[in-house]
Amino acid sequence: xxxxxxxxxxxxxxxxNRQKRFKAVAKERTRHFTVAIEDVYQLHNTSAVMxxxxxxxxxxxxxxxEVNTKKIDREIALGAQKWVDVHRYHHMADCxxxxxxxxxxxxxxxxxxxxxxVEDFDVTKASCFFFGRETEGLSQQVLDAADATIKxxxxxxxxxxxxxxxxxxxxxxxxxxxxxxxxxxxLSVSEQNSLKLQWIKRTLKDYDRIVKRIKQTKH
Length: 219
Prior knowledge:
- The chain is α/β, with parallel strands linked by helices and 219 residues long.
- The chain has helices spanning 3-10, 16-28, 43-55, 74-77, 92-101, 140-145, 163-179, 189-203, 207-218; strands spanning 33-38, 60-64, 85-89, 105-109, 116-117, 127-131, 148-151.
- Helix 1 (3-10) crosses helix 8, helix 2 (16-28) crosses helix 8 (189-203) and helix 3 (43-55) runs parallel beside helix 7 (163-179).
- The chain is elongated and about 65 Å long.
């Protein structure tokens, strides 16, 4: 049984409105950009970044937990954990190697003077945006490995923003620019179907039992 056939069968178990919603959201998802966060210790910040990924159509979130290991705060994420794919790492080197292997350049986010402004960022390259700890920011390991460094323009006495706020601002800027470009940023039809299957699995009660029954009726 192909994924397409299984998806078609499973859609009978969800409402037409949810079918329509899954289709619409999947069409807006992208893997042209992805996000990585480094040892964020306040749980609500990790959850809020996940929520921003969902809001702006970023499908994958990479969480590095060399020091801090926590579960997603469901109240803050507001269900985003169902829709965003989370990849966890115990070492930053593993995360950076993984995203590079997938074709992403490493983009560090930092308020440092030598960083470029986010509005000038070149969206044509597949990029992973790295966000650091609440107080220390990104480690020197990431800053040294970065292919590009970006910052948000600031004009007050405060020199930095909360990580979740920074992530929301940067993702809004770069995804808006991406969607207004001629870059092919959307997922393929097969990738969209795989996502919809994944979302159905995460939301449908008795998913395994239903799939088993569907496959039995096909034989």
